[in-house]
Design goal:
The protein is α/β, with parallel strands linked by helices. Helix content is 60%, strand content 9%. The strands form 2 sheets. The protein has an 8-stranded mixed beta sheet, with helices on both faces. A 4-stranded antiparallel beta sheet has the order 2-3-1-4. The longest helix is centred in the middle third of the chain and has 99 residues, at 330-428. It is flat.
Length: 754
């Protein structure tokens, strides 16, 4: 019965349990950003152990051979001697001892001397000597006819083999020469030392003599300037009439008198300021109440004292009268009137005396201020006169001091030049003037300096070892296959559901079809790996619910997706689930071949059907016509059928969606074996129709870039990627899978023996 679901949309809503998996972000870390762990490095070294051993041995042999040939045909001898370098300071021959110079400065001087020895001009002078041109070393660079070429080659050899190095702590420069003859190497070094020391001595002596000439000219010029300075001092004394300008007194009389007048003026200013303040205070007192100071003066007035006594006597009598007669008695009233009268008289007297006292104090202060102001004016006049005298003296003194300072400086310079001229004359005759001294002749070297077996044997070995290590890592880096589970986790970064070993790793799997390995070799490690895949797939969907429709695809053809689909379907069927295995790979169908024998062994002996999925999708047959038993309990198959002309359009039709929806009701699990996702567009259609997609990576074929592109394209389609399976993994030296393979074989021995 044909299924007509052409009006159904192939892009059905994605179940809620699958949606969280669709929104997982695409990993942004590229494989180039990954770093090798110590375990990875050790694994690489173990896998290429023989390469490392062979190249290391070749390097050892090569180093030894090179040492033997060089020792026999091109030996080298190195002769050396020392040049003592004195501190780079000019010592005073008139003094005992030498100044202390910093170590860095002395070392810099030695470095400079070493660089002079290696200068091209110095080397050219050395090559021009007759003793050097007579050596076999010099003659080996060509014939006399081509002198220029010989000089260039000899100069180049000197640059490479003539050494000059400065000692860091000692005051020596080591001069060395390496060539094929021990006698000539010592002779060339001695010639270089003699040439350098003589050139330095000539340069130093000529430089000192040139400086002597310049110093004599400078001294003559300074002596003339000194005579002019002495005349200028005499002119200042004559023009001012002051003869004691050069005396170094602490202070002269003009300065002392001016200082005394300044002090007197300051004291008078202080007194005037004080009187002005007092006058302001006294003026304020005349306008306000009588202050306490004036009140004391008022109380000492005789009249006030008499009135006070009378008032006291009246108050005493009043107190007695109040006690004796009472408040209203006539005597008491008279006493009160008496007291009021005395109080009024006291107030009038106090006011008169207070006014008189304040006016008198104010007038006295004003008179004192006037007197002090007159004294201040006289002092200011005297101070100005003294200041004018001081200014005239200071001007003369300044002018004289300037000329005196010039005279003293010229005199000091003349005396210094005389001492320096004497030093230069002694230095010109000093044997240590060049600051370089030969320690002795270079001895003839007794041993070869090159080649040395301690260098060539270890060097060749290390070179071979380093080359082997480099090649090992180069081979590993150039190999971009997903060979191990670690590669999948590191580079692709999607869930790894299972790892299926390569069937060639077990001798018990020889001659067995990998597609039916679960049924043909149930106790093999490959079958156990498929069982672990089944368990991992079920556990990974424990929280979100199982995906009934599984789409199996790969990056390219021949990577083993059909083997994975058949073995996984077989395990699920053996577990009691009803499984439908659909061959949707119209471009390279395989199910009709893998289950052809089972079709002949069916119990019902029904006629062979030539219908398949293509007939169903094109409406030529119903589902019952294309579904056939596989010969395995609970497992049915739909073959691909005849190859259609429009496979992608058929897969995208509603009939495919209808088939999946109807099969959901009849089967516990539907497994679709599709085409490679990167090669055929129809694979993406099937990924959209399924509940989850499983990517198959082959350890011998799948490359990292293809795997990353396949994952990216599936996620861009917003489909659920349940994970991946790494198929055909081989045992690598130093890898985890090798240990697991051995452990499994050991663990299975009792079962296989039973």
């Amino acid at each position: 019965m044909a299924i007509n679901n052409s009006n159904r949309d192939m892009d059905k809503p994605v179940p809620a349990r699958i949606q969280p998996m669709l929104r997982r972000p695409v990993p942004q870390a590229a494989s180039s950003q990954m770093m090798l762990t110590p375990k990875d490095i050790m694994s690489i070294l173990r896998r290429h152990l023989w390469l490392i051993i062979i190249l290391t041995f070749i390097g050892f042999i090569g180093g030894g051979t090179t040492w033997f040939l060089l020792r026999r045909y091109a030996p080298k001898y190195t002769a050396s001697t020392y040049i003592r370098v004195l501190p780079p300071v000019e010592t005073d021959p008139m003094k005992i001892g030498s100044p202390i110079v910093a170590k860095d400065i002395q070392y810099g001087r030695r470095v400079y001397i070493a660089s002079l020895l290696k200068e091209q001009s110095m080397l050219m002078d050395l090559l021009g000597r007759d003793a050097i041109q007579a050596t076999d070393w010099y003659k080996s660079f060509g014939s006399d006819t081509n002198r220029g070429q010989r000089m260039r080659e000899a100069l180049e050899d000197l640059k490479n083999n003539m050494g000059a190095s400065a000692s860091r702590d000692a005051e020596f420069v080591v001069v060395s020469m390496t060539c094929g003859s021990p006698d000539e190497s010592a002779g060339i070094v001695n010639e270089m030392v003699d040439l350098f020391i003589n050139s330095q001595r000539d340069t130093t002596v000529s430089g000192v003599r040139g400086k002597l000439v310049e110093l004599e000219k400078r001294r003559t010029s300074l002596e003339r300037e000194l005579d002019l300075a002495e005349r200028a001092l005499k002119e200042v004394r004559d023009s001012t009439g002051i003869t004691d300008l050069e005396e170094k007194q602490f202070q002269n009389t003009i300065t002392l008198r001016l200082n005394k007048l300044d002090q007197d003026q300051q004291e008078l200013l202080l007194e005037v300021t004080s009187l002005q303040s007092d006058i302001v205070i006294l003026e304020e007192r005349t306008r306000g109440p009588i202050p306490i100071q004036v009140e004391n003066e008022v109380e000492r007035d005789p009249t006030m004292m008499m009135l006070t006594q009378q008032m006291f006597a009246a108050k005493t009598a009043l107190a007695q009268g109040q006690t004796k007669y009472g408040e209203n008695h006539r005597i008491v009233r008279e006493l009160k009137e008496r007291i009021d009268d005395l109080q009024q008289r006291r107030d009038i007297r106090r006011q008169d005396i207070g006014e008189q006292t304040r006016r008198a104090q104010l007038e006295y202060a004003q008179d004192q201020l006037k007197s002090m102001q007159e004294k201040l004016d006289r002092a200011e006049s005297q101070r100005k006169e003294a200041q004018l005298q001081k200014q005239r003296f200071d001007l003369a003194k300044v002018e004289y001091d300037k000329r005196l300072e010039i005279r003293d400086q010229l005199r000091e310079q003349v005396n210094g030049l005389k001492d320096l001229i004497e030093q230069r004359r002694i230095q010109a005759e000093d044997p240590e003037a060049p600051k370089v001294i030969s320690v002795g002749k270079a001895p003839k070297p007794l041993e070869m300096s090159s080649p040395k077996w301690k260098l060539y044997f270890p060097g060749g070995t290390m070179l071979g070892f380093a080359s082997a290590i480099g090649l090992a890592f180069l081979f590993e880096l150039l190999n971009d296959l997903l060979r191990t589970p670690r590669d999948v986790v590191r580079y692709v970064k999607i869930p790894l559901l299972g790892v299926i070993p390569n069937a060639s790793e077990g001798h018990e799997l020889e001659g067995i079809n990998p597609t039916h390995i679960v049924r043909s070799a149930p106790y093999s490690i490959v079958s156990e790996a498929y069982r672990q895949l089944q368990i991992n797939l079920r556990l990974s969907q424990r929280n979100d619910g199982e995906a009934k429709v599984l789409f199996i695809t790969s990056c390219g053809g021949g990577e083993g997706k059909t083997s994975l689909a058949v073995n996984l379907a077989t395990l699920l069927a053996d577990g009691g689930e009803r499984v439908l295995l659909v061959d949707a790979n119209f471009w390279r169908p395989a199910m009709h071949k893998e289950f052809s024998e089972n079709r002949d062994n069916l119990a019902d002996k029904s006629p062979k059907s030539t219908f398949g999925l293509s007939n169903l999708l094109s409406g030529q047959a119903a589902a019952e016509k294309v579904i056939r038993p596989s010969g395995i309990d609970n497992l049915d198959i739909i073959d691909a059928g005849p190859t259609p002309s429009n496979p992608t359009e058929l897969l995208a039709s509603g009939n495919m969606s209808g088939l999946i929806e109807k099969s959901r009701q009849q089967y516990d699990r539907i497994i679709i074996d599709g085409a490679p996702i990167l090669l055929v567009g129809g694979a993406k259609v099937l990924a959209g129709c399924s509940d989850g997609t499983i990517l198959v990576f082959n350890a011998d074929m799948t490359r990292r870039g293809a795997a990353l592109r396949a994952v990216r394209e599936l996620r861009e389609l917003n489909v659920s990627v349940l994970g991946c399976v790494l198929l055909g993994v081989r045992v690598l030296k130093g890898g985890y899978f090798q240990e697991q393979f051995r452990s499994f074989q050991k663990y299975q021995q009792p079962l296989l023996a039973g």
